[in-house]
Amino acid sequence: MRRVRLVGVAAVAAALFGALAVATTRGSPVALVGVAAVTGGVVRSRRGAVTVGAAVVALGVLVAGVLGSGTVPLLFGVAAAVLAWDFGHYAVSLDESLTDGAVTHNAEVVRVAGGTLVAALTVGVVSAAGLTVAVPAADTLTATLLFAGTILTVYAVR
């Protein structure tokens, strides 16, 4: 069995946070399936499973948005799905590239801290903009655009 790295644990935690962000909606079961896929991908060092899992977490957020969830939980859910994807891929890359004895703790902490900071700032800025600018409640179009933006962001990062 391969070594589970700190950044891999952070990927699973981010996916779980994304599922919890929409826990009171019908999107929660979908997002929990994504959490299981991210966990399996990190433990088995499978990049495809991590990608599918993060996408399913984002799909759970989309379902929550379509069913009328608030904007802020959707933002947290999408940010968490992107973090789960990023951290999971980084964990798999470290696992593929380095030996089991390689010391990567500092690099993993920097990746997790930096990614979390960027996500928190993004959610904060978008939430603050929503408070200062009159925006309608999340509807199907908003949720769909949020989901499409997530997919495009992940594609651009790759």
TrEMBL record:
Keywords: Membrane, Transmembrane, Transmembrane helix. Pfam families: DUF7519. InterPro entries: DUF7519. The keyword Transmembrane helix applies. The chain crosses the membrane at residues 48-67, 112-133, 140-157. This is Uncharacterized protein. It comes from Haloarcula limicola.
